[in-house]
Structure formats: C-alpha cells, structure tokens
Amino acid sequence: MTTQASKDLETFENPNPGRDYTISIDIPEFTCLCPKTGQPDFATITIEYVADKLCVELKSLKLYMWSFREEGAFHEAVTNQMLDDLVNAIQPNFMRIRAEFNVRGGIYTTVIAEHRNPDWQAPELVNLP
Predict the structure, then answer these.
(1) C-alpha 35: how far from its chain's center?
(2) pLDDT average, residue stretch 83-96
C-alpha cells in the first residue's frame, strides 16, 4: 500500500474567516484496539467545528484516523487525544468531537469532548417560525 497512516494533520486557510459557520465531518469507520483485550473497537466519530483562521484538510484527517487502528486506547482517552491534536493543529473557535462506539459486552459508549476559544463569542441562535 502506498498510502500510510500518519499523525500529521495538514491545514488550509479558512476561505471565509469573517463568518462563523459550522463544519461537520462524519467518520463512520473509525477503529482502534481495546487496551485490555487487544480486540478491535469500532466507532463513528463526528467532528463539528467553527474555524478561526485554519481548517483541517480531509485526506490528512483520514490518514490521522487510520493511525489509531493498531493502537490500544480507552474510548475516553482516544476521543480527548483527537480533540487535543485537532485543536493544536487548527486553533478553532469551537470544536466538538462525538465518538459513538459500537456495543462491547452489551454496553455502548459515547464520549463527547469540547473546546471553546475563550475570546470567541458564539453567534445568537436564530429560531425560525
């Protein structure tokens, strides 16, 4: 295989830095390993963020997600590591990562981690009739 997993997250300039808008990315085939048993864990990862100056490039994000396939990690740890790595790469105004892990031993796990730039104020929610 010529494509290799990588922890390097590439970025590009936000094409509309003067506007708050939400970018939502769904990754339905995330895998890592259970650190206790070595068995595979499967999850759907949803990343939502409001960019500041940078956005994450999707191919590098795919390769980043692949990099967890052979790593043992608790669900809570891997979700927070993703958040930390993405925030370090793009410094968003807001980011939420939702990791919905498939059933294991009759238990579903969902981990939600968030980051908010303290200097950013979210726009007021508009409720349409």
Answers:
(1) 20
(2) 98
97: nearest Cα among 75, 114, 73: 114
7-to-60, 81, 119 alpha-carbon distances in Å: 8, 11, 28
Q: Are strands 22-33 and 40-50 parallel, antiparallel or unpaired?
A: antiparallel
| Tens of pLDDT, residues 20-33 | 999 999 999 999 99
> 14 phi and psi, to 5 degrees?
-60, 120
Per the listing, tokens 């979700």 go with: 79
Which residues carry out catalysis? 34, 41
At 59, list the tokens. Answer: 């191919």
DSSP H helical ranges for the chain = 58-66, 75-90
